[in-house]
Amino acid sequence: MPTKKIVAALVVALPVLAHAQSSVVLYGMVDTGLQYINHAGANGGSQTGLINGGFWPSRFGVRGKEDIGGNTSVLFQLENAFDPTSGAMIPSGVLFNRTSIVGAMNPDFGTLTAGRQYGVQYDKTLFYDPTSLASYSILSLNLIPLSTLRLSNSVKYVSPTFGGFNVEAMYGFGQQLPGSTVAGRYIGSSLEYSQGPLSLRFVYEESRGTVGAVDQSGLSDRRYSVAATWSVPNRYQLSAGATRIGGDLQLTPRGTVYWATGGVWASPTVNLDLTVGRYDYQSIGQHSQMITASGRYLLSKATYLYANAGYMANQGDADLSIYNYDTTQPGKNQLGLSIGINKRF
Questions:
Q1: Mind listing the pLDDT tens digit for each residue in 117-170?
Q2: How far apart are CA 122 and CA 127, in angstroms?
C-alpha cells in the first residue's frame, strides 16, 4: 500500500483506536532551520540553505497504552521521520523507520518491547546530554554509529529502579539469515545508578557485521562507555563521558571518544549549552576535536527558536562533520552555523 494511503488510514482509524485503547496519542515535531556550513559534502564547498532538523529531526507518530489489569499495560509506538523542507519521507517510501514497537510494562517487573527501537547506548546517553543529542552535539563525534542508533528485529528489557539502580538489556537478531545466527547481531546492556541530582551509568555494546557483497558476520564492533551527570531540573546540568571503541568491524575507527557538556537555564524561557569533545583514533596518531554552543528561546511550552554554532577540527583522514547528518572531506575542518524553529504537537 502506498505510504500516503497508510498515513490516511491511520488518521481515519484513530477514533476507533482511541475507543479500543486506554489512550492513543498522535504526536509529532516539525523542525526547520537555515544553515551555513563550509567544507560540506564530497566537493568540499560551502553551503547555505534550509535544513530539516536544525535542532532535532522532524517526525510524526502514534503511540498508545492499554491497561489489561494486574497493574500491567500493553503499549505500542509507531514513528516516522520526514523532511519539512520538501514533505518527503526519510527514507523515501519507508514508513515508521524511527520506531515500530509493541510491548508490555509493569512497574514491579519492568518493560519489555519488541520491533525496531533505539539501542542501549542511545537510551543511556540521551538523558546525559543537555541538548538530548541534538544536531550539533556529541552525536557528531560518532559516539553512536547510525547502524546501532536503532535496531530492527530486536527485543529490549528495562528494569524498574531498585535502590537507585536499574538495568537495561537488548538483543538484536540482525539479518535473520537461514543458517546464520550472528549476521548483524547486536547485544547491549547497561547498569545505571541515579539518586538525587547524580546519575552514573556503564554501557556495553557488541555488533556483528552483515552479509552483503562481502560476508562480515565474523567481524565485531565492541563499545565500552561510561558517563556521569549532575542535574538540577530547570536550573543546570553538567555531564561527561568516555567511550572505548574496539573490535575488527570498525563501524567507526578504533579509539576513544571523550566529551563534556553543560547546560543552564538563564531564565524560564532561555536555555544555553556548551559541548566539547575529542575522538582519539587508535595507533594512527590523529584525532577530531569539536566544540558546539546552542541556545533556545521558548515561545511557548511547545515552540522554541534556536541558534547553533559548532566547529570540528579533523586531522589526517578524519572526516567527522559538525552537523551529524552531513559529511565532510578527510582532514578538513568544518564550521557550522544555524538558526531555526521547532514546533511540537
A1: 999 999 999 999 999 999 999 999 999 998 999 999 999 999 999 999 999 999
A2: 9
Cell of 73: 499495560
Using alpha carbons only, give the angle 126, 277, 166 rounded to the nearest 5 degrees: 30
Q: Is the pLDDT of residue 259 over 70?
A: yes
Reported as a pLDDT band with limits 50, 70 and 90, residue 4 is low
Of 208, 204, 202, nearest in space to 220 by CA:
208
Number of structural domains the chain divides into = 1
Residue 311 and residue 320: Cα distance in Å, rounded? 10
Average pLDDT, the chain: 93
**Residue 312 in domain:** yes
DSSP 208-264: EPPBSSSB-TT-EEEEEEEEEEEEETTTEEEEEEEEEEEESS-SS-SEEEEEEEEEE
Rounded distance between C-alpha atoms, residue 312 and residue 140, angstroms: 9
pTM of structure: 0.89
**142: domain CATH number?**
2.40.160.10
CB 63 within 8 A of CB 24: yes
Q: Is the pLDDT of residue 68 over 50?
A: yes
Is 92 inside any structural domain?
no
- Asked if residue 94 belongs to a domain, the reply is no
**Residue 65 forms part of a structural domain:** no
Of residues 265, 238, 243, 267, the one with CA closest to residue 254: 243
Domain of 115 in residue numbering reads as 33-57+107-344
Q: Nearest Cα to 160, choosing from 196, 106, 101?
A: 106
Name the residue type at position 24.
V
The span from the CA of 129 to the CA of 260, in Å, is 9
